[in-house]
Amino acid sequence: MYIDTIHDAIIGGEDELRQQLLEYQAILDNASLGIIFTRDRRFRHCNPRFSEMYGWPGNELIGQSTSIVYPSEQAFAALSSIAGPILGSGQRLDTELQMKRRDGSLFWCRMLGRAIDPSDHRKGTIFIVEDITERKNAEQALLRAHEELERRVQERTAELAMANARLHAEIQERKLAEQQIRYLAQHDALTGLPNRRLMEDRLEQAIEMARRHQGRVAVLFIDLDRFKPINDKHGHRVGDLLLQATAARLRKLLRAVDTVSRFGGDEFILVLPEMQSATAAVEAAQRVQGALAQPYFIEDHALSVTPSIGISLFPEHGQDASLLIGCADTAMYHAKKAGRANVQLFDPAMKT
Ligand SMILES: Nc1nc2c(ncn2[C@@H]2O[C@H](COP(=O)(O)OP(=O)(O)OP(=O)(O)O)[C@@H](O)[C@H]2O)c(=O)[nH]1
């Protein structure tokens, strides 16, 4: 069909020119890319591949406005505003855009354009068009797959962060539980004071330290006098409150290095490291006695209870915790025998 046009265009019938035109025509007819010539934004010429790509058979596009293959007037205007300056300056237009087939369906194109003579736009423009729908679809599928992957990674990261937070919380809970168990194993439930086991540990440590520095440790064994009648008269509950109040008073008297513990029942043991002398230990015991002898006001009852206190000293009375506790107990027993409410320093003669 294009052959006729070329025949018409050949004036003079020079064989060489005719041959050249036939060759160009063959290129256009067989190109796998769509090729068009436009002038004044109208189709002047389009090759079979272009007609096939856009669904316009034969010469139907020739003479029509090029806007007919754009999805909308706006899309056409947008492309024109980009293409105008590029083509006018002699550069090659290279763009990707959606175009419209005759049946209204859209497809993706790569469009290359160049003015035939940039200095004279009336000479028209040549456009080469490639259908890149498959590549675009593949790109979009890849993009969607990438987005999906990104979403899953984020989801998984969030899940892991939550699992991590749960794990941390569990570890924290377990640590707290362990701390609580350790605390309960080392403290007296009623008064919150260190229990016998913890006191013995601390006493061993104090002995070790004193041994290294040629120091002295005092052990004060305190037993409340006639505590049983308070229980009997006011009830066990008041007795408990009195034991708690006693513990609070003892705590107040002590230095940071000292340990006050509940040994059991109405018995308390004080471990006083860094003791200068036996006299200093006796004075400390007397201060304890004075503080405990003050009346207690518990649930409208004014209660008085005195302590009997026995003292032993490291290194004079024993080399380990159990010996020192035994000596302090013996001294306390002597305080009871001496009429209660007094302080006794251990003397080996007490054991005989
Ligand atoms: N309320 C209360 N009483 C307790 C607790 N533990 C032991 N007791 C009581 O404390 C009393 C201790 O009595 P003892 O030390 O033997 O005798 P006491 O009456 O203090 O007399 P002396 O020590 O000889 O002066 C007993 O009646 C125990 O039942 C406790 O946790 N709470």
Automatic annotation (TrEMBL):
Keyword field: Coiled coil
Family matches, as CDD domains: GGDEF, PAS
One Pfam short name: GGDEF
UniProt superkingdom: Bacteria
GGDEF domain span: 215-348
Residue intervals of the PAC domain: 93-144
GO molecular function: catalytic activity
Protein name, entry field: Diguanylate cyclase
PROSITE patterns for this protein: GGDEF, PAC
Regions annotated as coiled coil: 129-180
Native source species: Noviherbaspirillum galbum
